[in-house]
Task: structure prediction
Amino acid sequence: MLNNTFALKGTFCYSKDPQNLIVRENAYLICKNGISEGIYDELPACFQGIPVIDHENKLIIPGLTDLHLHAPQYTFRGTGMDLELLDWLDTSAFPEEARYADLDYAQKAYQIFTEDLKRSPTTRACIFATLHPEATLLLMEQLENTGLKTMVGKVNMDRNAPSYLKEQDAVASATATRQWISDAADRHFENTFPILTPRFVPSCSDELLGFLSEIQQEFHLPVQSHLSENPGEIRWVKELCPDSLFYGDAYDRFNLFGKDQCPTIMAHCVYSTEEEIALIKKQGVYIAHCPQSNTNLSSGIAPAARYLREGLHIGLGTDISGGFSLSMLRAIADAIQVSKLRWRLIDPSLKALTLPEAFYMATIGGGSFFGKTGSFEKGYELDAVVLDDSSLPSPRPLPPLTRLERLIYLSDDRNIIQKFVCGNPIFSNTEDR
Amino acid sequence: MLNNTFALKGTFCYSKDPQNLIVRENAYLICKNGISEGIYDELPACFQGIPVIDHENKLIIPGLTDLHLHAPQYTFRGTGMDLELLDWLDTSAFPEEARYADLDYAQKAYQIFTEDLKRSPTTRACIFATLHPEATLLLMEQLENTGLKTMVGKVNMDRNAPSYLKEQDAVASATATRQWISDAADRHFENTFPILTPRFVPSCSDELLGFLSEIQQEFHLPVQSHLSENPGEIRWVKELCPDSLFYGDAYDRFNLFGKDQCPTIMAHCVYSTEEEIALIKKQGVYIAHCPQSNTNLSSGIAPAARYLREGLHIGLGTDISGGFSLSMLRAIADAIQVSKLRWRLIDPSLKALTLPEAFYMATIGGGSFFGKTGSFEKGYELDAVVLDDSSLPSPRPLPPLTRLERLIYLSDDRNIIQKFVCGNPIFSNTEDR
Result:
């Protein structure tokens, strides 16, 4: 399919910028070698005769990018939700992640995750695995086969973790990471790539962060981690790193905090100080805003609207399984919802996120971490999700943006009937389910 | 079926009290004339030979009561969500409700609502219609046929509403209400009953509230309305009723605020003052806590955990379509989620709702407005929802309460495979869908 030219027909909704959602009704989106050639009301003469996939009456949106989630935690999403972050890690996350030392378990558990991700509205994702290199490679293989574009991290953690889920020391962690990078390279994956993944500052000694910095510079890998999520966590980081000026500084002093040479995603940023925000902006760090997780783990509400409006890089994450829902459409709704509560309860000067703003974050906002993705404008890699809202009956016809809003609030996997990544069909709902 | 005795077999979860969820694995619930005879590990000798509906491996919970929703607003749920309460009423709710003057439209739109309610986990509901008596009767007929137990209100509104959705004056509103009550009585409904429904204080003149008080005392009808939802609304009520001590007092001075003779539901109570809370408690007013709506309309977060722990009557409402989801299982999750944010952002002295507490509110909490419903203990009317979680695969077996928690966070209509109200089967998922 990659070298093919074809057209998608339907009603397209995509972001021009954070304030404006574009609608093109009953139009043609041309795909050439996986790249958008733009949207046309009629098929241009030079494209007459190309195959047309007709999704008339359906809405078609750019693929959504999930900037932050933990694949091994998918098994227990929606359980143990009465706990706060640090207790939840000890009670739910760590014991479950330890199971992935067993490759049979990992195979079975990751298969459930990858199948559901394939059917979700997500086309790209940045994913935490566990500290186990073999299970991480297994996850990467499964993801490779979905056709989705993903970055996957073998997690590093050499301190402040239970003995059953901790690497022996910084050297062992770094060695395993190098081996994992080498093994991943040997597989010649086309869709899935390694991303360095120090779990978070409390789990990583300075020595380990130093090694990871060397590895980052050697292999030019991107980085993902957690930042300023929960008050208890932040106090802990302050104790652990008395010399750091703020939480993010503890990554930055090891050159693991953005800049051109080190594309970085930091999840949460609920309590980032002004200094931290300034450094995030200056060094182009991506913020993964995870509203559902921040709610479930009683963390708080990040000022996502401020970040977006001040021009920081920000996308959305489901944070499985601090968040229980894998749907990035729901993440859009969640982001809007919590921003309203933040406006009402904390800061009336920061207006709630609008639908176009939250949609932008889920498409171009996070998508740009992968390059030119998240839009249908000419030159973008063509990721698309075809949405069928016929299961949401209405006694009167609704305009496209109203239909899109309803799908954002009310859709489930049944509404997602086809998905494309770089022009390749990932699945069709008429097929194999 | 009503005069039958039968058993349901499965794994039962129900509340003993707000702190304790009972689990009975692979047990038998006996139903006799629509009433629970209790749960047994083995079928007792005296019941040998009765029909057994075998839902082995399924979870069975009491039917859920939706204490507050607007049926005519179901058509636009999940749309227009970027507005606050009073603007949203003017822009979304009022124009749509006006359409129900047209009985063809009402028939079509209400059919969508009643079909979905039938398939939802709700077995009982207190519902606002519109001000139109004919359309309200039509809704009642449709609901009657579902077999669900419902209370339905023709809405009263004689001021501060657009001319296209306002009754001529208090006399006209009262006259229409009496006629509607009489017409409803003539239909001899067995499942659906009228409930007096002054929209809210801003929509009802003192004269109208006076007439409704007379009607209430004459027909001994219950009452439902809105209370202390949004700061803008509360300021407005203060202007409209300068003599009222607080918002609730504006209902109470017309004897439309609880006490034995006047069972009353007040939706929201986000900003109730200490005086108002004291009167709610003293007069046994039911609070319909609507977490999703209070979020969507940027209203705030009600101190639901306080109300419950202080022994006030409190249940949950979806508040369609301030809330967009009809699922009372989602309402349970929403209630827990916002209570966590309230704890973190407003009041660390009020611990978040636990799963057992929120489950209690959705079952016995709201159900008790209908009498002895919401539990499987002997003597309760037997409303039950059968949940199939096989669409949520797990790589390892999960205990029943963990399965229940997952269903609360992750289920949709596909997980609801059968439902009973007073022992009558409402639908079976193997059937007609």
Q: What stands out?
A: Residues 83 and 297 of chain B are 6 Å apart (CA to CA). The longest strand of chain B covers residues 5-17. Chain B is about 35% helix and 25% strand.
